[in-house]
Specification:
Radius of gyration: 17 Å
Helix content: 40-55%
Oligomer: single chain
Distance between the termini: 7 Å
Number of domains: 1
């Protein structure tokens, strides 16, 4: 698979999409893989998480007609670059929908970068309406982070329905897996939610990411888990995820 494009998506917010995107991207970079993060969330939290200012990179890429290479920001970390998002990303979504741009808009926009990177990762906003669907269309592999609580598990079906609908329209990517996040074996709710996922999605379930306050601290400090708390249990969880994604991207 040439330059695998991995999209982290869920139609519910607060499930660990941004944290997972940044953590996986930084580990890939640390393993010597030239990695690009594209932040399709108008909140621009990928940039914040890496302590760089949000900028209208996605808007420039999709609407302004800028050359893709001109939309890239270096992160100050070896092998890790980013096309940032900010509030202008919401405007980009409105334009894409109003002009009925084709589903492959994002895929075509990023095509010139495929020879420059080993991996491209997408973070997405929880809302649908244009960009999320086009980001999925551009991706080879989809990861659905799902917090192990009732409401997050309940929203999983809507995201899977979107993938099914896009497949019927010609999308040729695949579901890499469902990623249980914020798992806490001490709480009944978390155990029940994880048991539900194990029962209903046994063949597509990644190793769960354990709940840890250190992940919130990392975001606040503009650091990743590898800089702040590795080795450690949560770092081990994400390392296992990266191993699985790299294996899937080679198949």
């Amino acid at each position: 698979m040439k330059c695998p494009k991995i999209c982290f998506v869920n139609q519910k917010g607060g499930v660990g999409k941004t944290t997972s995107t940044i953590t996986v991207a930084d580990e890939l970079a640390r393993r010597g893989k030239r990695t690009l993060v594209v932040d399709f969330d108008p909140q621009g939290q990928c940039a914040v998480a890496l302590n760089i200012p949000p900028q209208p990179g996605v808007f420039k890429l999709l609407i302004s007609g800028s050359a893709p290479a001109d939309c890239i920001n270096e992160t100050g970390r070896p092998n890790l670059a980013m096309i940032t998002g900010d509030r202008s990303t919401a405007t980009a979504q409105i334009v894409l929908a109003a002009e009925n741009r084709p589903f492959d808009t994002i895929r075509q926009a990023l095509k010139p970068l495929e020879n420059q990177f080993d991996y491209i990762l997408f973070d997405t906003a929880p809302s649908v309406g244009g960009i999320q669907e086009r980001a999925v269309w551009a991706a080879n592999l989809i990861v659905i982070p799902v917090a192990t609580d009732y409401l997050a598990v309940d929203s999983l079906g809507k995201t899977l329905d979107m993938l099914t609908a896009l497949s019927k329209q010609g999308w040729q990517g695949k579901l890499a897996g469902i990623l249980p996040t914020m798992y806490d074996h001490v709480t009944n709710e978390s155990r029940k939610a994880y048991s539900y996922l194990e029962k209903n999605y046994p063949e597509t379930l990644f190793t769960p990411i354990r709940r840890a306050t250190i992940l919130r601290d990392c975001i606040a400090d503009g650091l990743t888990i590898w800089q702040k708390a590795a080795p450690g249990p949560v770092a081990d969880d994400y390392r296992a995820l990266v191993d699985q994604l790299m294996k899937l991207s080679r198949s």
